[in-house]
C-alpha cells in the first residue's frame, strides 16, 4: 500500500459511564439513535447513522468500566477520529512503513437487531495509530465486514434533517504540529495549508480541520471547560436538509442555540463537551 486516501468513517464521543444521559441529550439534539449495542470487548454504544459516515456515543454500563479501561482516559467529549479502510491488515503494514504502527489489526463484533427484527452480528477489524501520536484521543481505521448491519436506511432519517458529518475540528496551540502526523500518514499533499494557518484534510463527505486555540474559540465559541490548549478534538459540523428541522428539534429538546451565516451553533456545554454546528446542504 503506497498511499492511503483519507475518508471519514465515523467519529467517537467518549461518554464514559454517562451512556443514558448522553443518549438522552443526543435525541434532544434531534438525532435518531440505534438501540444500545454491546461490543464483544466490553464497551457499549449508541449510533447516529448518516449517508456515508456516523456518530458513535461510546461508554460502558455499570460494573464494566474496567474493560477497555484505556478508552476512558481521554477527556469526555470528542475522542475518536476514525478512517475508512477495506483492508485493516494492509493499513497496519502501511503504518509500520511510516513508523506509526501500534498494535496489529484486531477483530471484534456486536450483536444487532435490524429494523425488520432479524438478528445479525456487526463485525469489524480496526487498526490504530500509535497512542502517543494522538493526544487526548485516538485515530484509527475501521474495516466493516458487515456494512449492512450499520448502514440501514431506516436508521439514516433524523428529526433534525442531518445527512452527514461535514467537519471534524481539532484545536491546538500549533495546528501545523497537530496535523503533521496525518501528513506522515497520508502524504503531505493531502494536507492543505490555508492563509490563516489552518490545516485541512479532505476526508470524503467531511473535512478534518486543525485550528489554533484562539481561532477555534472565535469560530466555535467557548471550548470544553477543561481545555488546556493542548491538541484536542473539540467540534463537529453537520449538514442538514433543513435548518427549520434543526430549529424545531432544538426547541423541542430545550437545547439553547445561536445562529449566524455559517449555520446553527450549539455550545460545548450543551453538546456534551464538544461544540456542534448545523449548516444547510
Task: Write structural notes for this entry.
This protein has 281 residues and is of the alpha+beta class. The protein folds into two domains: 8-155, 2,3-Dihydroxybiphenyl 1,2-Dioxygenase, domain 1, CATH 3.10.180.10; 162-280, 2,3-Dihydroxybiphenyl 1,2-Dioxygenase, domain 1 (Roll). It is 19% helix and 37% strand. It has six helices and 16 strands. The strands form two sheets. An eight-stranded mixed sheet has the order 2-3-4-1-5-8-7-6. An eight-stranded mixed sheet has the order 10-11-12-9-13-16-15-14. The longest helix is centred in the middle third of the chain and has 12 residues, at 175-186.
Average pLDDT over all residues = 96
How many separate domains make up the residues? 2
CATH superfamily of the largest domain: 2,3-Dihydroxybiphenyl 1,2-Dioxygenase, domain 1
Estimated share of beta-strand residues? 35-45%
Which CATH architecture of the largest domain? Answer: Roll
Instruction: Please tally the β strands and state the result.
Output: 16
Fraction in helix? 10-25%
- Write the CATH fold name of the largest domain: 2,3-Dihydroxybiphenyl 1,2-Dioxygenase, domain 1
User: Which consecutive residue ranges, at least 5 long each, have pLDDT under 50?
Assistant: none
Shape descriptor reads globular
Tell me the radius of gyration: 18 Å
Topology:
Elements: E1 8-16, H1 19-28, E2 37-38, E3 44-49, E4 54-59, E5 77-84, H2 88-97, E6 106-113, E7 119-128, E8 138-144, E9 162-172, H3 175-186, E10 192-193, E11 199-203, E12 206-212, H4 213-220, E13 232-240, H5 243-252, E14 258-260, E15 263-266, H6 268-271, E16 275-280
Parallel strand pairs: 1-4, 5-8, 9-12, 13-16
Antiparallel strand pairs: 1-5, 2-3, 3-4, 6-7, 7-8, 9-13, 10-11, 11-12, 14-15, 15-16
Amino acid at each position: 500500500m503506497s498511499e492511503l486516501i483519507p475518508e471519514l468513517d465515523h467519529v467517537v464521543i467518549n461518554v464514559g459511564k454517562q451512556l443514558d444521559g448522553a443518549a438522552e441529550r443526543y435525541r434532544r439534539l434531534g438525532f435518531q439513535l440505534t438501540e444500545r449495542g454491546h461490543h464483544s470487548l466490553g464497551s457499549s454504544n449508541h449510533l447516529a447513522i448518516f449517508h456515508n459516515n456516523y456518530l458513535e456515543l461510546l461508554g460502558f454500563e455499570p460494573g464494566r468500566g474496567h474493560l477497555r479501561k484505556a478508552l476512558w482516559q481521554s477527556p469526555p467529549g470528542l475522542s475518536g477520529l476514525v478512517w475508512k479502510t477495506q483492508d485493516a491488515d494492509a493499513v497496519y503494514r502501511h503504518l509500520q512503513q511510516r513508523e506509526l504502527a501500534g498494535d496489529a489489526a484486531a477483530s471484534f463484533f456486536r450483536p444487532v437487531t435490524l429494523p425488520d427484527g432479524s438478528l445479525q452480528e456487526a463485525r469489524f477489524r480496526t487498526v490504530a495509530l500509535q497512542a502517543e501520536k494522538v493526544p487526548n484521543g485516538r485515530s484509527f481505521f475501521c474495516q466493516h465486514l458487515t456494512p449492512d448491519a450499520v448502514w440501514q436506511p431506516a436508521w439514516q432519517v433524523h428529526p433534525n434533517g442531518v445527512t452527514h458529518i461535514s467537519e471534524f475540528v481539532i484545536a491546538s496551540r500549533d495546528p501545523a504540529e497537530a496535523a503533521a502526523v496525518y501528513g506522515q500518514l497520508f502524504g503531505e499533499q493531502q494536507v492543505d495549508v490555508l492563509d490563516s494557518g489552518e490545516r485541512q484534510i479532505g476526508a470524503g463527505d467531511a473535512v478534518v480541520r486543525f485550528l489554533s486555540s484562539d481561532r477555534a474559540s472565535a469560530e466555535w465559541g467557548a471550548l470544553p471547560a477543561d481545555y488546556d490548549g493542548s491538541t484536542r478534538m473539540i467540534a463537529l459540523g453537520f449538514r442538514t436538509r433543513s435548518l427549520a428541522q434543526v430549529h424545531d428539534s432544538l426547541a423541542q429538546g430545550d437545547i439553547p442555540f445561536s445562529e449566524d451565516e455559517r449555520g446553527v451553533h450549539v455550545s460545548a456545554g450543551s453538546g456534551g463537551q464538544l461544540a456542534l454546528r448545523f449548516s444547510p446542504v
